[in-house]
Amino acid sequence: MPVVEDAFVRFGLSGRPGTDAFWAAVRAPRSVPAPGGGWTTLFLWRGSAADIGFESWSEPVPLRRWADTDCWYAEVLMPARLRVTYQFLVDRAAYADPFNPVGAGGDRSIAATPDAPAQPHWPALGPDEVLPLPRTRLRWSSELLGGRRTVRVHPVGGGGPVVLLLDGDDWLHLHPAMTAFDSAVASGEMPAVTLVFLPVKDRRAEFACRPELWRAVRDELLPLLAESGAPADRDRLVVAGQSLGGLSALYAALEFPDLVSRVACQSGSFWWTPDAMESADLLGGPVGGALAERLRQRPDLSGLRIAFDVGEHETRMLPHCELTEALAEQAGATVRVSRSASDHDRAGWRHALLRDVAWALG
């Protein structure tokens, strides 16, 4: 198969595919410039038939087998400036890429095209590495939300303003937010903060503009934090959320202004309306959804600092986000707008999270 062999050589790989020497030298994925722009990226899998599952950016891509060996591969055309989470799908199971040192939990990896901006402070952690966990654990028994939750708290640089991380378990177990914030504070890029990792039980229910969540944060969680030595008044609290979490963070700023005045929002689900979840096309409703309609009432947002970020490859999300950004600024909020080199993917939100929290603190 000379064409495929030439393709492997152009990716900087030598040796006969499928041999022990070949596998010992493999580091993947590897990208080369594609004709007409963008990148051709080579993914390799050792074993049996598999697909590559991408987070949001693409439908699954099947791998091809090299001759009769255990080498399976795919050459995937990627646009410029893309960082994406992926995994190998084999017989209904998911695996991280064993040849990629950049993991996202035990069954996912992160690929980035060579022109994707760097993400300083986020360490490359393989799928077998265990992320550190905060020592402080608070048992939160919520009457308003029902049930018990474990909220973890990590003082960075000795502690400071509270950063409430929605989807906290993802930032604990998939992406090393503790380590990244420690590094950013140590470098002087943000002041000392106290990270609060808020777990969620039902994202669609709790983050869908639900007042009970924010009443519970105000009346139950914040007093619990204060008792533990981490007070969070209005000017010492940043709410950071992504996707539905970003929607919920802006909702809190609109409906609970005495609680939330600083927000870091990545790829907020501003398509949301009360009946959107029943639609076959979640993003096909009115642009900006329910929060755009609320913002058109011109609430006084003069005390709000909000950083908006969305992936530049999220083409259908962009109109919803752009309208919400504009309406928030028209209502008096101090607004920061940026675009990340990603689709709807936590791997692309990581740098924006650090940068936007630092900006929100002013």
Fold blueprint:
Layout: H1 2-10, H2 20-25, E1 30-33, E2 39-46, E3 51-54, E4 61-62, E5 64-65, E6 71-78, E7 83-90, E8 93-95, E9 109-112, E10 136-141, E11 148-156, E12 162-165, H3 168-173, H4 177-186, E13 193-197, H5 203-206, H6 211-227, E14 237-242, H7 244-255, E15 262-266, H8 289-295, E16 305-311, H9 318-330, E17 334-340, H10 346-360
Parallel strand pairs: 12-13, 12-14, 14-15, 15-16, 16-17
Antiparallel strand pairs: 1-2, 2-6, 3-4, 3-7, 5-6, 7-8, 7-9, 10-11, 11-13
Helix pairs in contact: 8-9
Description:
The protein has 362 residues and is an alpha/beta fold. It is built from 10 helices and 17 strands. It has an 8-stranded mixed beta sheet with strand order 10-11-13-12-14-15-16-17. Strands 3, 4, 7, 8 and 9 form a 5-stranded antiparallel beta sheet that branches. A hairpin with a 5-residue loop joins strand 1 and strand 2. Helix 8 packs parallel to helix 9 (318-330). The radius of gyration is 22 Å and the shape is globular.
